[in-house]
Amino acid sequence: MGILSKRIVVLPGDGIGPEVCSEAVRVLRAVSSRFGHEFEFDYQLMGACAIDATGSPLPDATLEACRRADAVLLGAIGDPKYDNDPTAKVRPEQGLLGLRKALGLYANIRPITAYDQLLEHSPLKAERIQGTDILIFRELTGGIYFGEKGRSEDRAWAYDHCTYSRDEILRIAHRAFKAAETRRHQLTLVDKANVLETSRLWRETVQSIAPEYPSVALDYLFVDNAAMQIILNPKQFDVILTENMFGDIISDEASVIAGSLGLLPSASVGDGAALFEPIHGSYPQAKGKGIANPIATILSAAMLLDHFDLQEEADCVRDAVQHALDQGVVTPELNPSTLYTTEQVGNFIAYSVLDIADCEVHRNNIKLGMSTII
Questions:
Q1: Of 192, 238, 340, 351, which residue is the catalytic one?
Q2: Other CB atoms closer than 10 Å to residue 214's CB: what's the count?
């Protein structure tokens, strides 16, 4: 791959979002320095900070910038003043839902990896989760979350319609099959086809295209069984494909395998632009304390590089993260006795991207806060 020039919109968001985004950008700048690419970063408002500044969680200027971008990097959104007010008409999360819809981001992709150095952080037994490597494809713009909903006049009953079309299922199913072809050639469809008509449509549609991917073994699990199997034997899974609500639940459940939300990235993709974000929340209690774990956001930046077909660069970032874990350069979330801050972890990973040997030379300076990069 030759030299690339890409425009990346950065949405730092709320809480610890600006802190972890800053370190992901630092690492991307290290990538551009090492490999000669040109990344232009355009910072915009979204979430509670955008409501405070403009009255909207997704200002028009932000949406327009995201539409023009090659990719979007998001930190986190959310604020307790909205979480604790059930009557709030405008909420930070509306900005994210609006952005997904406006950009046509129909596939959410979450890798779930069990790192050997961190097995003790998971509530599950190490022997159950060691070696786990799952890729979850969750449909993002259909299903019960987006179906017609309402309440009776007396507020005594309510309804939420779950609807899907064949085309909505096909576009994400093809992505999941193609991903399985590059991994261990196994795809599991999670549904509730014994009860739900929409699930039967999912199963029929996925079955219809399976012959196009002869190297991929396709199997099926009802969502209740899948939820149990993810805990009992997560290593059995390679790629999981499922609808919106099931994916929301399954992917959050699977996050306990890694032992920390601060390690888990995600991508939301469509046919054009794509959004990359850690799966953790805004963690307002940690804001400004320098203790936030930036690794999930940095790994989201690696997925962004995957999106640009920069495989060597993406692998370089993942190798740098692995090096930080191997060397114990982590924030207190992963090691309560550590002295490393959010910025110092980001610096160490950025140095590793440039040159692991150079990173070792500068390690003491990084720990003492005497050295920064990019």
A1: 192
A2: 9
Q: Can you give the pTM of this predicted structure?
A: 0.89
CA atoms within 13 A on the CB side of 29: 14
Q: Is 358 a catalytic residue?
A: no
CA–CA separation, 179 vs 216, rounded Å?
A: 10
Q: Catalytic residue at 70?
A: no
Active site residue 248: yes
From the candidates 85, 224, 315, 355, which is the catalytic residue? 224
**38 in Cβ contact with 101 (< 8 Å):** no
Task: Say how far apart CA 273 and CA 81 lie, in whole Å.
Answer: 31
Residue-wise pLDDT for 280-319, tens only, equals: 999 999 999 999 999 999 999 999 999 999 999 999 999 9
Choosing from 52, 116, 252, 271, which is the catalytic residue?
252
Helical residues (DSSP H) of 210-310, grouped into ranges: 223-232, 244-254, 295-307
Q: Which of 229, 241, 223 is nearest to 179 (CA)?
A: 241
Strands (E), 152-236: 158-160, 186-191, 217-222
Helices (runs of H) and strands (runs of E) counted in the chain: 15, 12
User: Which pLDDT value is given to residue 361?
Assistant: 47
pLDDT digits (tens, 9 = 90+) for 57-104: 999 999 999 999 999 999 999 999 888 877 788 999 999 989 998 999
Listed as ranges, residues in the chain with pLDDT below 70 are: 1, 356-374
Residue located via tokens 């390679």: 238
| Whole-angstrom distance, CA of residue 10 vs CA of residue 44 | 6
